[in-house]
Amino acid sequence: MTNIGVISDTHGLLRPEVITILCGVDYIIHAGDIGDPQVIEQLKTIAAVHAIKGNIDREMWANKFDDKAQIEIAGHKVFVIHNRDDLAFDPSCKGFNIVVSGHSHKPSIETINGVLYLNPGSAGPRRFTLPIALATLKVTGNTLEPTIHEIEI
What CATH number belongs to 2-151? Predict the structure, then answer.
């Protein structure tokens, strides 16, 4: 079994509750709007981090992050993009099992044509009445078990 932490839209804020939830994961995926490079450095103390930049990540430090990423974790092809609306192809036709996105600040889990679409929501500052959230994804062989974790503040 492989445990993946999935986070997005931290906007420079890494809450202690987030660290507690991510403690013990094997990998962390950050789907953009990092806001401060220290967020990634802190996440690296927990597990290996795969991160992309989002629309707010425009300072020089963000240049080392790509706008999107293709990674493989536990035998699954994962496509990471900040805004799912910018996805310009059908992931099922390209062999992806998982698409991770952020941007909307709305946590969601959806499966379309055998592809898991996972948006962990926003783990950073609260936006409007949307929850503060992140996700974990347990991978056991071909079984994907995503969970949204809402943080009560």
Answer: 3.60.21.10
